[in-house]
Amino acid sequence: MWGRTLLMEFRKSWRGFAIFILVVVIISAGMAQLFPVISEAFEEEMEELEGMEYVHLEVEDEIIHLSWVEVEDAVEYVVIEDRHPYMMMSREVNRTDMNRTTIPHPEDEVRYFAVKYLTNDSAEMPLGMASTVEPTDPMEELMDTAFYRMFTAGRADVTFEEMEGFMSVELYSWWILLVGVYLSYLSVKSITEDYEERRMDVIFSTPIPRKQYILEKFSALALFTLILVSLSGSMLMLSVRAVGEPGGWEFLVSLLISWPMLMVIIAFSMLFAVVTQSSRKAVGGSFAVILIQYALFMAGHMVESLEPVLPFTISYYWDYNSVLLDGVVYPLHLLLLVAVAGVSVFLTVFLFQDSDIPA
Predict the structure, then answer these.
(1) Cα separation of 133 and 136, whole Å?
(2) Pairing of strands 91-96, 55-60
(3) Residue 82 and residue 91: Cα distance in Å, rounded?
């Protein structure tokens, strides 16, 4: 009789499994395909000021020293300034027949300068621009915020300039919500539907032990999850290689090692289902646990005083950044997650053995 409940679970839910796997695979592989587009967009934002190679600016003792290359047919140079690079509200600050000038400069004031030159026929031609502000990388500015630092799980070396950093923030940091929440719902419904649709007494009128019922339900969901992370990781690896990035194996491994964490979610959700015997209560309780531990994990990386709570969150033991950035897997962390899942399943079986089944 072993395997009957597992097969029934797959026959009952395979369409939902397949659709969800397809969605997750598309999201995972598609995110890698977006990296070159987003990276190029950021690079375009980082474009230097027009003609800045022709104009040199230096600040010394609250004085701006501005100089530029000489133009053969220039009879006069015009210097204009603005507080913004678009020069929409610019004003003229100097006219000179030399290729340099000095301008008073209050400390920490942001100023943009443009140099134009006049030719013999009075035509006004642009030469170049300079600013008191150094060009910055928008990606670096984005990552240098508390909001994004919490998604890097404490790794200061995670940057958007590399595929690993981009995926760490845009996919891996949300993985527990993207996949875990659905698995939690599925785990609860796999048991509570049998309660709510009055199938429990029919199921156990056949020679199926209660322990076998729980173990096979858990095994079916664990097997489905293994298929999901394997396919998602494989397609992500191929997608990374398709955009010309080297390696890719680390993306497969980092998703595969999320399996123990997801098994903990399945086990806890089934425990809630057995205790409450209600879809609404079990789903609410499971979602609350996932969201609270996720919030604590993020807060632990943002607020130094909350760091001690990190080991009490399951996300802490799925160290995807170590795989992505260092190529390192911590087996003890994974074994601990497997142990927690095992204990939860054991407790579920124990409680289910002695629970009353409504007629």
Answers:
(1) 9
(2) unpaired
(3) 7
The type of residue at 270 is M
Q: What's the average model confidence in pLDDT over 309-324?
A: 91
Q: Are 331 and 322 in contact (CB under 8 A)?
A: no
Average confidence score pLDDT of the chain? 86
Ordered strands of the 112-119 beta sheet:
91-96, 74-82, 112-119, 124-131
* Six token digits for residue 94: 């100097």
| CA–CA separation, 288 and 275 (whole Å) | 16
d(CA 176, CA 314): 10
CA 350 – CA 214 distance, rounded (Å): 10
Radius of gyration of the chain (CA): 30
Residues contacting residue 320 through CB under 8 Å, at least 6 positions apart:
153, 168, 172, 175, 254, 255, 257, 258
Per residue in 275-308, pLDDT (tens digit) is: 999 999 999 999 999 999 999 988 887 777 888 9
Of the CA atoms within 13 Å of residue 62, those in its CB half-sphere come to 3
CB count, 10 Å around CB of 341? 23
The CA distance from 313 to 32, in Å, is 28
What residues does each domain of the chain span?
Answer: 4-40+145-353, 55-134
Least-confidence region, from 74-78, 160-164, 260-264: 160-164
Rounded average pLDDT over 43-69:
81
The order of strands in the sheet holding 100-104 is 55-60, 63-68, 100-104
Q: Tell whether domain 55-134 is in CATH 2.60.40.10.
A: yes
Strands 100-104, 112-119: parallel, antiparallel or unpaired by DSSP? unpaired
Nearest Cα to 66, choosing from 130, 10, 125? 130
pTM, two decimal places: 0.73
Whole-angstrom CA distances from 307 to 174, 212, 301, 312, 316 are 20, 40, 7, 10, 11
Give the Cα separation of 19 and 45 in Å (integer): 38
Judged by DSSP in three states, 199 sits in: coil
